[in-house]
């Protein structure tokens, strides 16, 4: 989908003036400060910046996992097309949203998986939470999604502990996608993996996002990941968004001195 088509649609997510300060942080030090963004259906937006710039905090605030004060996260819910204020939703409804229409891919797969149940149960669990009870359907969907993320469906009953890092990450993606979410939040989904494993996983994410027309927010410190996956990129520094725009524009013609530094430190020999 090209950007003009994307922006002709109504946004799916609107983040307004979002700020977060961790308890105990030094006075005046904010993890996120006055961040505003919009995400459109079918769009991938990368959040880049150096370590400690507030990328994960912003993602966690958007997901409703940590409080934002002040600020708001508005989401156009698919079940009734109503705009909801994510932080004002009752906890039960927010959890329901997180389990159905939203996905969250953790940087460390072990945090996004249940390591003491089988691969198939990891996928089936989310479907069960969405109301599916038939054992055969759960197994069949487990196999189907393992195949979709290029895992051997014969390993349905294996523990994720028996999987490699890259395989666990694939399984975590399958677990997230089985309920056909509209919005997926990913926190450094490929970091910590071997370079060749990263490349395959990125390619898989790119295919899935396009095939399923997902909207996604991807936190990454790797500008190559932003270039490959995201139509738009926003740059964070010390908790603030300092620049945002089309990925090619931001990376090829950065306007903010910090983005210029970030880009040049990648291309420097
Ligand atoms: N649980 C926490 N308690 C207190 N301060 C925190 C906590 N998590 C993050 N911070 C602080 O908030 C700021 C932003 O951190 P955050 O993890 O959001 O950055 P990041 O850009 O995602 O970094 P990285 O790329 O290293 O994961 C940092 O100053 C960090 O020290």
Automatic annotation (TrEMBL):
PANTHER family documented for this protein: PHOSPHONATES UTILIZATION ATP-BINDING PROTEIN PHNK-RELATED
Annotated GO biological processes are:
organic phosphonate catabolic process; peptide transport
* InterPro entries in the record: AAA+_ATPase (IPR003593), ABC_transporter-like_ATP-bd (IPR003439), ABC_transporter-like_CS (IPR017871), Oligopep_ABC_C (IPR013563), P-loop_NTPase (IPR027417), PhnK (IPR012700)
GO terms for MF: ATP binding; ATP hydrolysis activity
Species name: Roseateles asaccharophilus
Q: What is this protein called?
A: Putative phosphonate transport system ATP-binding protein
Keywords from the named record: ATP-binding, Cell membrane, Membrane, Nucleotide-binding, Transport
CDD domains to which the protein is assigned, alphabetical: ABC_NikE_OppD_transporters (cd03257)
Domain of life (superkingdom) = Bacteria
Q: Which SUPFAM superfamilies match?
A: P-loop containing nucleoside triphosphate hydrolases
Coiled-coil blocks:
none
Domain named ABC transporter is located at 13-263
Q: Name one Pfam family in it.
A: oligo_HPY
Signal sequence span is: none
